[in-house]
Amino acid sequence: MLTNAPRGTKDVLPEESYKWQYVENEFAKMCNLYGFEEIRTPVFEHTDLFVRGVGDTTDIVNKEMYTFKDMGNRSITLKPEGTSPTVRAFIEHKQYAEIQPTKYYYNTPCFRYENPQSGRLRAFHQFGIEVFGTDDMMADAEVISLAHDFLKKMDIKDVELRINSVGCPVCRKAHREALKKFLTSKYDRLCETCKVRYEKNPMRILDCKSPVCQELVAGAPMMLDYLCDDCKEAFDQLQENLKAMDIEFTIDPKIVRGLDYYTKTAFEFVTTSLGAQGTICGGGRYDHLIEEIGGPPIPGVGFGLGIERLLMLMEYCNTEIKKPDPIEAFIVYIGDKAKKYSLGLLTYLRSQGIKAEMDTLARNVKGQFKYAGRIGALYTIVIGEDEMDTGELSIKEMATSEQTKIKAEELVDFFIGRE
Q1: Do 314 and 321 touch, CB atoms closer than 8 A?
Q2: N or C: which end of the chain has fewer CB within 10 A?
Q3: pTM of the model
């Protein structure tokens, strides 16, 4: 039906939208504190950007992208993640020619055709940050630190940081051969997706959610045992940096993340708050992504965080989010002449930063008072001919029914004094 939202999408009504505004504002403030600047990229991109950037062995590219031909017969895709479009913008606008590092943050809608479930929608929203232009592990630690501080600010309970290194093309070669050798005898029992991964990117099999595949990879060779000297040193530096920042972590050799572009650092913040382990935020380093998309060889590191899942966890953890301020003043008018006077008064109150309302449905006086109570107005101001003639207004506190008489010119001071 036309009056039903498409499956996997969700409307955000006013009783929920104030929570969104809260987390969006707090994320922006946290990023600003860390020296990140906002970037906004289009909702859709050329399909090749994601095929080259995300990788053709990922579930996103293989199964989940919303791809279509536009009027010019170009293949276009609604963005399934925020990193590749940010990299594209960085290259297109030659930001690499500016002083480095470049530090971006974004709050963006994303789209993936997957089975809708709790905290996972087909049209969803993602916070993310990216740091371009440095391969120093201080940048990795800073990215993790920002996520750590933000989740703490959101009062998410039972959060654990897990880190790993997924190596580089040099050391991955030896691990790839060892892993394929380990899986050769198990190949026929792998799921169809992992059979494709076996040829293209066998390390992704370690990330498969299939219980059968998870059982098959038990005891498999892990990347940490095959790191080259450079990757091992980088991983050691990351751990030292996190310790210096007093951020607790656990090394988890099975973290490989769901995207092909990661190198070296891979990390996840996981929680058991909902009864089962779930990833809240994940990210890592991608030193070759900018070059693969068509830019110069510039390293990068970042993370992504789903807003819907974050809000769900915040609700579960009973995080307090302040509700919007109530209507301070509701003007009740008596007659057409008073209505015009009230409109001027309403405009004046709002210009002074006072949240004010009046009736727009031509209710009678009793109906106006009733409506003011229903919307939670703190005070009502009655305007009739007597009030206009004398300039003395009657203000009623709705909670106590206490009435006060004040002069019109003292009205603003009356409300400001109660803030």
Answers
A1: yes
A2: N
A3: 0.90
Q: What is the pLDDT of residue 220?
A: 85
Distance (Å, rounded) from C-alpha 380 to C-alpha 359? 12
pLDDT per residue over 67-92, tens digit each?
Answer: 999 999 999 999 999 999 999 999 99
pLDDT computed for residue 233 by the predictor? 97
Residue 167 in tokens: 């190596």
**Cα–Cα–Cα angle for 51, 126, 6, rounded to 5 degrees:** 80
In degrees rounded to 5, what are phi and psi of residue 294? Answer: 125, 10
8: left (phi over 0), alpha (psi -120 to 50) or beta: left
d(CA 218, CA 179): 11
For 63, 69, 83, 298, the CA distances from 73, given in Å and listed in that order, are 21, 5, 25, 32
pLDDT digits (tens, 9 = 90+) for 200-251: 788 888 878 788 888 888 888 888 999 999 999 999 999 999 999 999 999 9
The answer to whether the CB of 36 falls within 8 A of the CB of 130 is no
